[in-house]
Specification:
Strand content: under 5%
Helix content: over 70%
CATH class of the largest domain: Mainly Alpha
Number of helices: 6
Oligomer: single chain
CATH architecture of the largest domain: Orthogonal Bundle
CATH topology of the largest domain: 434 Repressor (Amino-terminal Domain)
Radius of gyration: 14 Å
Order of helices and strands: HHHHHH
Structural class: mainly alpha
Number of strands: 0
Distance between the termini: 34 Å
Shape: globular
């Protein structure tokens, strides 16, 4: 499996969804919090080993860390309907609300 930036964004999404702190996830993935931040921001691609550990941590199949053509098509259609800046703002707001609830 070739890893991409999507995998890092997926890790961040799962971490936020589960309400896990980045330090906890980094420890479980056996990487530094700084490296996790680079992965989650799309600056580094996670290794297969990190993906495997993330799969176990979040109890999802490793295939969940690969973007599918269908997902990308759906997102492209969504982008046509919604201004990307508004979409990002709403997603960030929702993730912050989720984080605040789990703190």
């Amino acid at each position: 499996m070739q890893t991409t930036h999507f995998a890092g964004f997926k890790i961040k999404g799962l971490r936020i969804k589960e309400g896990y702190k980045s330090t906890y996830v980094a420890e479980k993935l056996d990487i530094t919090p700084t490296y996790l931040s680079l992965i989650e921001s799309g600056k580094k691609n996670p290794s297969k080993k990190v993906i495997s550990k993330a799969s176990k941590l979040f109890n999802v199949d490793v295939k969940e860390f690969q973007e599918s053509p269908e997902l990308m098509k759906d997102l492209e259609e969504l982008e046509k309907k919604i201004d990307m800046a508004n979409l990002i703002a709403v997603l960030e707001m929702l993730s912050k609300d989720l984080s605040d609830k789990n703190s």
